[in-house]
Design goal:
Length: about 200
């Protein structure tokens, strides 16, 4: 019988103690890819509190669909707290979703790399944001977002300091094919980064 992700990681010397401490963590994929992607854009390079406030105002002010965003005046988006740049990004995402018919089903059968390539072709969607969609919109089990600060902090705490990103990615191969679950545990390796998962998933 194939081990579950949690059984596999519980036997790992690095992640095992975190599994014992935090129990079985789940990916909990989103129901709405567009809303989750907009939330990720709101959270780029700002604090959790600021992002949450912007998200709440934005979702109250605008129908959170591609058509709803495109129908809204840019001033409404900026009044909700989006910067001029993020207003452009959200509009770009909405236009692409409407033009291409993007949805969870659209990406369901695509490889992780293919999903990244399509999403990062949208202005304002970088690798971090694309990886968050793989994890928390599509529920992919083997994603290791080495560009995430919380992951790097957790890795330094659990494994060792001084690893480069490429070395971290190479080391993380031992957690395949469940690197997404390893990521969830690394986010919880220190109390001060325990909000990283909530930062991505809450309200999406």
């Amino acid at each position: 019988m194939t081990d579950t992700p949690h059984e596999r990681l519980a036997a790992d010397p690095d992640i095992g103690p975190l599994v014992a401490r935090h129990g079985e963590l789940a990916l909990d994929p989103a129901d709405d890819l567009f809303r989750r992607l907009v939330v990720s854009i709101c959270r780029q390079q700002v604090s959790m509190a600021s992002a949450a406030a912007t998200r709440d105002r934005l979702f109250d002010a605008v129908e959170m669909t591609p058509a709803g965003v495109l129908a809204a005046d840019d001033a409404v988006l900026r009044d909700a707290g989006l910067s001029r740049q993020k207003t452009r990004y959200v509009n770009e995402v909405a236009a692409t979703f409407q033009e291409r018919g993007y949805s969870l089903d659209y990406f369901a059968e695509m490889s992780d790399d293919a999903v990244r390539a399509e999403l990062t072709a949208i202005t304002g969607v970088g690798e971090w944001t694309a990886n968050m969609q793989l994890l928390f919109s599509l529920g992919r089990e083997d994603v290791f977002p080495v560009g995430d600060l919380g992951v790097r902090k957790g890795f330094s705490n659990v494994v060792s300091e001084g690893f480069s990103r490429s070395e971290m990615s190479e080391y993380a191969r031992r957690w395949a094919p469940y690197r997404s679950y390893a990521t969830l545990y690394l986010w919880r390796a220190e109390e001060d980064i325990a909000g990283s998962v909530a930062e991505v998933t809450d309200g999406g």
